[in-house]
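hey so u asked for the seq, here:
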Amino acid sequence: MIATESRVFTGCLGWAIAFTLIGCQGMNHSSTPPSNTPAVSVTLNQSSASIAVGTTTQFTATVQNTTNTAVTWSVNAVAGGNSTVGTISAAGLYTAPSQSGSYAVTATSVADPTKSAQATVAVGMLGALTPASAVLAPSATQQFSGSVQGFANTTVNWSVDQVAGGNSTVGTISATGLYTAPSQTGAHTITATSAANSSLTASASVTVSTLSISPTTATMISGDTQQFIATMPGITNPAIAWSATGGSISASALYSAPSKVGNYTITATSTADLSLTASATVSVFVFAISPTSLTLAPSATEQFTTTIQGLTNTTVTWSVDGVAGGNSTPGTITTSGLYTAPAAIGAHTVTATSSADPTFSVSATLTVVNIAQAAVLTYHNDDARDGAYLEEVTLTPSNVNSTQFGKLFAYPVDGQIYAQPLYMSNLTIAGGTHDVVFVVTQNDSVYAFDADATSAQTAQTFWSKNFGPSVYKGDQTGVYPNVGILSTPVIDASTNTIYFVAEHSPDNPTPFYLYALDVTNGAEKFGSPVVINATFSGDTLETSCYQRMGLALNPVTSWIYIPFGSCTHGWVVAYDKTTLAQKAVFEDTNGAAGGGFWASDGAPAIDDTTGNVYLMSGTDYDDQWISAPPSYTQTGYNDSFLNLNPSTLEVQSYFSPDNNYTLSGNDADLGSGSNILVPGNSQYPEVTIGGGKDGNVFVVNPLNMGGFTDTNNVLQTVKICNNGFDNIFSTPVYWNGSIYYHCNGNVLRAYSWNTNTVQMSTSPTSSGTTTYQMHGATASLSANGATNGIIWDIDNSNYSWSNPSQPSVLHAYDATNVGTELYNSSQAGSRDTAGVALKFTAPTIANGKVFVPTSTEMDVYGLLGQ
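ran it, structure tokens below
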């Protein structure tokens, strides 16, 4: 062969045979002859791909004309790629980045790096549909949109509940995403699918619903409320905006009817689709009762009336406590609305029901309270503890003077009289009708004296009984030397029963006994006496306690409330007035110490309409605190105003001064004084006022007292006296827009009270001139309604536990200007000298007489010569 032969010719002659036109001088004798071996080539399984962000596609490379078929991979010239352009494994698995775009995948031959193959990858995404959800009315439309990125073909295909383009059952959707809801309610799913990559989808939810309101019509009494409810099928707790053409409606759809008669429209609008609305019609008429709340004496009458506007038939039927016409137990009411109270105390409801529509009624609450004509049945005259006797027609500022007025005589007794004398008029006793004054002593004796007597010669004791022996205490700073009946009793005029607590030598766990006696003869009633025991969360009422605060009879519960103090804790126990069964127990510092109830012999105040019990606690030097200032964390309720639930004695509200820690450290009781209830305004119908040893008087909202904060959250704080930590040991008097206080080591002072602003004056409107030592005084007031006001109090500066021999001094001041002293019992020499001074005593005024308790006798003062 020529080719073979040419390999053996090495000279120019050999090549000349094959290439006759090329001269020998032009040849490169070192060149390698050209090879006929095919070049290396690289091809990919796909030249382009369209995938979604974050997904993968598999590339394979085919390498030809070499035994080494390995390749290396890159993306956008980055070996192996990265998170921005996507990554590719050694096996060719490409993972798209999270961003849409166009990326070049390259496979390069390892055998011949000049040889490679490239594919284009379009990485796309379909954004979330807008809106993501929609609420539509039947047949309404909603435009949906979805954006395709990264693909040249941005077309999406639409479906409803996986039906392309939807249908009449699920709703239809156009190629541009305009959805038309079906005529039926229901929930559906709108899906957009990328035409470039069917794996790319996005969905939105559609709820086709209607809005309805319930009730659709309502008839209401002005001032009443009606709860409306909006319902949307398929939607739980739909968001609704409410409106009313009259009255008001809350965000929770509670409608309050206006005071004007008329028809009003309530509208509900879905905030998800303002085209979804529903309405209701309310017809409002006026139906009112007057009065709405009141207190009555036993057997008293009250005329109730109704006002009806907007109804043709304005007649009503009357009931008491659900009994048509009432009966002797709740009281009776006539067809014209004249109510007659029962003889017993208690709370009742009078109801007027529309004859036109018996579903409508209005009610009034009333309480038959423990009052009687011209009587003083409880400490400081009434349950508000205001100290005012307003039926005094005999004693006036013009005749109370040392010429016309003085000491008539004295009833001797067997022991100290700390309790305020109580008074009943026109009592059937001892075979006749008499006015009677009741006195109790520290030797456990009870006396019923003739209150009409004017001299020792006419004086008589209707009955007296001793329930001793009393208990020797020997407490020089407290009560000395013995304790028997220390607190003021309470009389239930509706049953002629006097209740008191006696302490005597114990043959039981405690020495305290609750007694109930017939006021006409002293006979014991209702299984009297009962032993008073109390336990609470591991604590027990101690024998060292004093039962010093006056008893309180609650007309709402018909319970007797009995406070205790001067021991480790403060206690209040409640007993049923008829069965004498214990009903409730309250301890104010469980797990701590202090909080005793003593109040300088005051008594709890009672709201006769609600029955709420209000009182102030004291302190002890070793009261337990969790932390000192500035955190001021205390345990229990020492030095606090308290609002107790009448049925459970649980604390409903309280206030403790911001200097509580200081009060505790100085043995400065807030509860050294007692609080009273005074009239307020429409926002605060009733207000409680009280103060203690630091001289601050607090004006407190009784229903929201303010708690314990860095700043006193009360209506007002007034500093009325400044004698260190030894100021207020008394219960104030309220009368005719004035509040009267007599501080320790100070003079009697009057302050004005504004019911509109519920504020007392910060400085006295008038002041007395005589300074009392020994705790100041608890005053009492006599008046004929709003006229002839006289302030009476007792100066016990002569009190001495070690040498009890000097007298008390009774004072009388003009209530309109306490700077005018009308009388005192030292003005007429020895004629009017009172018995031996005690402390914390309060006089009782009734029917032209002033009854003064002392250590040795009960003195009777009145007009001379009568």
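The first strand starts at residue 41 and ends at 44. Residues 12-18 form the longest helix (7 residues).
lmk if thats what u needed
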